[in-house]
């Protein structure tokens, strides 16, 4: 059970937690969970519940622990207030109190929802992240962001609530379909684009091996991506400045997810968002065409679809972005790159309406099936 440990420490607080990368450890969780008491609530979607939830529950029960498994229908469309209330009601019916530790077992939808429940249930209970998808490992489980979707947009309700521990079991990745692997790779590419050109180049040079889940290269890719994410979080936990960089591609991407009613996956939407926001940087004179082409090429290397089901007007997209958390004075703002690995000096900026219109026209022409 070899691990490459990282520690996320939030300055000015006592918050500190380990991020551990292992193989085949879901059956050995009691060893890791000793500090968190005797009562555990596993929250998973119906798919991860069937794949891993029952086995995790059994392993903990065999150690004499009190364990419950709660599941909900999978999919981004179920990350809602209704689902949150449904799980909370089940926790209350079992008379679970503040001595309960929540185990978030699954991908980004599960970690977002379970994290928000942990933050608010009994005014906060311990949380352990057990991500089983690549996106969950390199992004959603680290940094404390939790949230649910509402009809007006994605992740508009939530809070920042740090876990006590993040445990990754790389063996779970072998069960994922290829599109789920690509969803996570988009976040890894994003990390290289905003913070580390050498890491971006590593992903570029080893795309075939990473897509094939070659163990040593995959472990390094995940470790380096987590290192970038946790380093940014440590500098700006509450997203007052630098942490906005982690939203590169997400202003456009979240709007596209919402407008397509989650017909396209998070990774596919963010990949398109990365391209459109990079194109905005080109139009504003920040990013060179050659760098833009390199970003487009790496997304193609990893076989991202880069196709919207239908076109959207600039006005429709603009309206969907107004409630984005980076918006200021009713105007959406975007992360701008100057070079790969080097963002513009401002964490995010607004653009002229005409510039946005040109970028949306380009998107509809080059990245739309119709």
UniProtKB/TrEMBL annotation:
Cofactor(s) required for function per UniProt: Co(2+); Zn(2+); NAD(+)
Keywords in alphabetical order: Amino-acid biosynthesis, Aromatic amino acid biosynthesis, Cobalt, Cytoplasm, Lyase, Metal-binding, NAD, Nucleotide-binding, Zinc
GO cellular-component term (any): cytoplasm
Residues annotated to bind Zn(2+): 187, 250, 266
Gene Ontology annotations of biological process type: amino acid biosynthetic process; aromatic amino acid family biosynthetic process; chorismate biosynthetic process
Pathway involvement of the protein, from the record: Metabolic intermediate biosynthesis; chorismate biosynthesis; chorismate from D-erythrose 4-phosphate and phosphoenolpyruvate: step 2/7
3-dehydroquinate synthase N-terminal domain residues: 71-182
Name listed for the protein in its UniProt record: 3-dehydroquinate synthase
Organism this protein belongs to: Parachlamydia acanthamoebae
